[in-house]
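QUALITY CONTROL LOG
STEP: pairwise intake check
CHECKER ROLE: data steward
CRITERIA: each record must contain a sequence immediately followed by its structure tokens, with no blank fields

ENTRY 1 OF 2
RESULT FIELD BELOW
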Amino acid sequence: VPGGRGGGIIKLFASKQVQLNGSISANGESYVCNRGCPTFSTGGGGAGGSISISAQQFLGAGNICSSGGSVQVACSSTISGGGGAGGRVFLRNHDSDVIDLISLELNISAFGGSSDGCGAGGAGTIFIEFNQTLIVDNGFASFWSAITPFPYQDSSHANLTDIIVRRRASFLFPVADAIS
């Protein structure tokens, strides 16, 4: 069953700063079927990939994106798969003395892809290490989007200062674990 391919992996290490005025993306592939759909059903959009960037400082007004692929099917007799899940973005500061780590003008996203038939993919996660912030943001996707699970196997080892869930993202935190 045809569908979109996943976004892949990008790993970048800069000894000083990353000045980003363009885009870094590991988006999942979208699947579009305009005519002659090959089967009764199609696959979904590809999942967003993984982006890991380590630097002393992040500057610029660019985009970092690891979103899932969308699905569009024009055939009324075809059932489409769901949108691909958002990927993972990890920003790591390897110099804790730098205070102004991230420019507020950077646009970082890991949205789930949309779908004509099934629901949108779940949001990916954005982890900013220097302030221990986990962001789950689905960019106002459909209300029928998949749930994003907590990304750590053992949440007792996750030292998070903030968990931000916004713009129609659904986030599943293990019930047995304490949140403090």
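ENTRY 2 OF 2
RESULT FIELD BELOW
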Amino acid sequence: MINLLIPADLSQNFFNSLNLALMFDAHVPVYVTLLYDSGHNNKDIQLGFGEVVSAYLPSFTHEESNIGYYITNGKVENEFNEMVGPGENYFYISTYHEVHKKAKKHYSPSNTISAIRSLKKNMLVLPTQTLPASFSTILFPVHVLSKVRHKVTTTAKLARMFNAQIVILNTLTSSAEAVKNAASFMPNRFLPILGAKAYLPA
């Protein structure tokens, strides 16, 4: 089973992140969890979901695979339901945003960790009983790391909490410094991804 935790950004990063998920064996169950916050533009999120619905869900219709979503915006939630309809190969939950919102401090590392801990506990009591209680991989857009340093430490803490590997989605050509900073915070868990090609460090 491959479990991807994606702190989603704009639709292009969203699209690229799921494209990377398809690089894995299609017959291995894949759960993709997206974490949004109140600062994201609704239009960008909707564009991202449109891309996923048209490009990815058909690839995950076989029984072995599932895609899980955390959707934190009610409007997007409704539109996603209208586009896709009920199904057995995906599910969504909208708890992260509410937990994070109650913390009141936008992008606070400690509050974000608390919100994720709450999610981790809630995962075990879902009706589907299929959402994984841990994540094997966390995807993170590198341009975010270059702007807000504490997001790197937050992501590293999440990796330790879930015993996950960190994957840096390199969306910039001039992001070497950001990648270097991220690697320094994530020893033994750092797997850079350049463009659409993944490689394992030597």
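INTAKE CHECK: passed for both entries
DESCRIPTIVE NOTE, ENTRY 2: The two ends are 24 Å apart (CA to CA).
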